[in-house]
Task: inverse folding
């Protein structure tokens, strides 16, 4: 696998130009979607969230061999 | 969450004479010229007049109007359709000029007043945070700026030195 950095940069530039040229209503919908995504990431990263709990089981109390 | 709802609300505030002249600035305004970039809030620049007998400008009428209609405050923002919106009075002659020269754009039947690309670029140069420099570079790379107009604004607002430094830092040909 080889990387052609110049080509990658050219393609990125072209993608950005295509996005910039989209109709404004569409670009505003993209802004809405980007903000929703940012909020989702922010909530998932927040230490207050209870969306994901990864606590070890209490082996001392409930371990079958104890 | 719909940013167009923010524009509709602001336009209604204008119809109801709660605000007079306004213009959208910041990343949301930049989206009208460039590719969309994630942003946390909407900056609405507004012309404010001091209340009779007062030397202070107040945003109370704006917040009162919106609170009456059920919108909630979140710190210094008011939340409209899921978007934190910040109302900003002009804080510099450059912002005042940007407000005076704002351009109107049609968004699916609604008129939205936004800063010109040249003013947004000059404000980014003046503000000078990393994200502002990135935005200025985006404007330059996309060739959306009318450079004569941009440089006129830069000169008028005493930003020539900053602009020279910016060019040396970011636009200098590394092979030269």
Result:
């Amino acid at each position: 696998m080889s990387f052609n950095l110049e080509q990658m940069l050219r393609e990125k530039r072209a993608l950005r130009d295509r996005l910039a040229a989209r109709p404004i209503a569409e670009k505003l919908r993209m802004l809405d979607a980007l903000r929703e995504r940012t909020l989702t990431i922010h909530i998932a990263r927040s230490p207050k969230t209870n969306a994901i709990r990864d606590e070890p089981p209490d082996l001392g109390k409930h371990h079958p061999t104890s | 969450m719909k940013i167009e709802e923010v524009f509709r609300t602001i336009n209604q505030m204008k119809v109801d004479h709660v605000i007079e002249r306004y213009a959208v600035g910041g990343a949301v305004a930049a989206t009208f010229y460039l590719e969309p970039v994630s942003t946390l809030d909407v900056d609405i620049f507004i012309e404010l007049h001091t209340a009779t007998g007062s030397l202070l400008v107040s945003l109370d009428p704006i917040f009162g109007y919106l609170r009456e209609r059920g919108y909630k405050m979140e710190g210094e923002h008011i939340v409209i359709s899921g978007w934190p919106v910040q109302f900003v009075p002009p804080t510099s002659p450059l912002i005042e000029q940007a407000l005076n020269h704002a351009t109107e754009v049609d968004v699916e039947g609604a008129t939205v007043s936004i800063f010109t690309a040249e003013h947004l670029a000059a404000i980014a140069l003046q503000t000078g945070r990393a994200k502002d420099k990135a935005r200025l570079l985006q404007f330059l790379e996309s060739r959306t700026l009318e450079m004569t107009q941009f440089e006129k604004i830069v000169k008028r607002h005493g930003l020539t030195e900053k602009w020279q430094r910016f060019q040396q830092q970011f636009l200098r040909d590394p092979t030269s």
User: Anything to note?
Assistant: The interface with chain B takes residues 13, 16-17, 19-20, 24-25, 27-28, 30-32, 34-38 of chain A (CB under 8 Å). Helices of chain A lie at 5-20, 24-45, 59-62.
